[in-house]
Amino acid sequence: MTCDQVKEHIADYLAGALSQTEAEELDEHFAQCAACKQETAALSETWEMLGLLEQERLTVQPSAQLRSRFYESLEAYRQGLESPAPGPVRRRFFDWGWKGWAWSAALLIGGLGAGQWMGQRDRSRADLASLQDEVHHMRQLVTLSLLEQQSASERLRGVDYSSRVDQSDTEVLSALLHAVNHDSSVNVRLAAVDALRKFAGNPAVKGSLDQSLVKQDSPMVQLALIDFIVDERDKAALPSLAALERSPTADKNVKEKALWGLSQLQ
Amino acid sequence: MPETRADNVLMQKVRDGDLAKMAVLFERHHRALFRYFLRLTGNREFSEDLVQDVYFRMMKYRHTYRDGHPFTSWMYQVARNAHLDGVQKRKGETPLFEAGHEGSMHEPASAEPDPSEILRRRQDLGLLRRALAAMPVEKREVLVLSRFQNLKYEQIADILACDAGTVKVRVYRAIKALSQIFFELAGEKAS
Predict the structure, then answer these.
(1) Contacts B141 to A, Cβ<8 Å
(2) Could you tell me which residues come within 8 angstroms of residue A232 by beta carbon, excluding any fewer than 6 positions away?
(3) Which site among A26, A54, A82 would you substitute to test the B interface, given the most B Cβ atoms closer than 10 Å to its Cβ?
(4) Where a domain ends, among B59, B91, B123?
(5) Are residues B82 and B129 in the same domain?
(6) Facing B22 at nearest CB: one of A46, A53, A74
(7) Residue of B nearest to A48 (CA)
(8) For A62-108, what is each residue's pLDDT tens digit?
(9) Is residue B97 in a domain?
């Protein structure tokens, strides 16, 4: 074993993970190389002392508050997944249900693909643009229909599906903003905040984030919104952040986050 | 290991919608996570925030958990990201490893009968804590994972997304760097 090979084996030596053969080779090298022997002994001593620090560490416990905070957020998540959507369905037009629309979209897209495959190569650019519009329209319908569902998990699918819609689609954008502001499920609201990032270039998003921040009753959503606001450098939200930071009723973590947000944007 | 398999099964259930199972994973692992962050940051409050963040992220991104992936590795991958993001967000705030933290830990009970030996060991451990705090976080992290969290090099390789050989090299470099800082501090103290 060479000096370089010894260095490669020191981690295993420290962890007691050397094979019998490796241990014997190492001992043979130590018998001939005082430098390696001395270095390994020094590193072993440090490693052993770290073990004493480990014993000391075991006496350090987290506070009881950590447990209560965890159970609060777990409960919020569970409620978010189980609670029904609020209020009456806004668009009767979508009563067909998302599955119906999804099948329609799949059939239409499949039909369009088959048509193209059959060799209609002389289709004009105008026709293609029209087909693309149809596909986009179907995606929009599926997204909006999913977002209207009673089940939170299906509304989550709607939020996820929104990523397939063009970012200039104001109707989907409006539905996502509605979900952020009014959905009964914290989980859906959080997912909608994430989905809105795709639409960040749209001025309507920036203008509405600070309003959403004030309307929220969920600290987790407020935290996600503050991250979004800071990432987008949305200085129009500074007054809302300042109000939140001063609010006597706001969550402690949200207040701290709002203060951080102010420091990032000011 | 049965415990590990049970963790995997629980996480699969969480991913599939049974969020209540996350409470069991919290009870099993939150202390280890807290101590992991405490060794990395030296700050109790920040460490508790990071633990909270890890469980929040595991719930939020539960759909990314893959069948068969060791839960502990996945949890520490999430924990690393939470730590990196947390430190990034704290830039400009109170430095971590603030003075006073060291005193919050207790010395281990020693069976050593010689009072002067106890004193020397206590001083050495104090210096070692300082040396550990003075290390770059990348080096400290690999020692925390291997020596304090008792993870095998293969598990650490999974967490750090590299091979076990690379982890061993990093452990060697880290323990060597720690030893150098420790002996420098000891030299300053002696001089």
Answers:
(1) none
(2) A200, A205, A206, A209
(3) A54
(4) B91
(5) no
(6) A74
(7) B147
(8) 888 888 888 888 887 777 766 554 444 444 444 445 555 555 566 66
(9) no
Examine the fold and report which residue of B91, B125, B148 is the final residue of a domain before the chain moves on.
B91
pTM, entire model: 0.53
- Is residue B61 less than 8 Å (CB to CB) from chain A? no
Find the distance separating the first CA and the last CA of chain A, reported in whole Å. Answer: 60
Q: Can you tell me the mean pLDDT for B131-158?
A: 91
Element (H, E) at A64: helix A64-82
Q: Identify whether residues B86 and B115 lie together within a single domain.
A: no
Task: Give yes or no: residues B115 and B86 share one domain.
Answer: no
With an 8 Å Cβ cutoff, is B89 touching chain A? Answer: yes
Torsion sign across C-alpha atoms A194, A197, A198, A202: positive
Contact A196, A167 (CB under 8 A): no
User: CA-CA distance, B188 to B191, in Å (whole number)?
Assistant: 5
For A222-258, write each residue's pLDDT tens digit: 888 998 888 888 888 888 898 888 888 888 888 888 9
SS3 B166: helix
Cβ-defined contact of A71 to B31 (cutoff 8 Å): no
Q: Are residues B144 and B78 in the same domain?
A: no
User: Same domain for B125 and B78?
Assistant: no
Gap between the Cα atoms of A6 and A9, Å rounded: 5
B18-57 pLDDT per residue, tens: 888 898 899 889 999 999 999 898 888 899 999 999 998 9
Taking the CA of residue B19 and the nearest CA in chain A, the distance in Å comes to: 7
pLDDT tens for B101-127 read 443 444 444 444 566 776 777 788 888
Q: Mean of the pLDDT values across residues B145-155?
A: 91
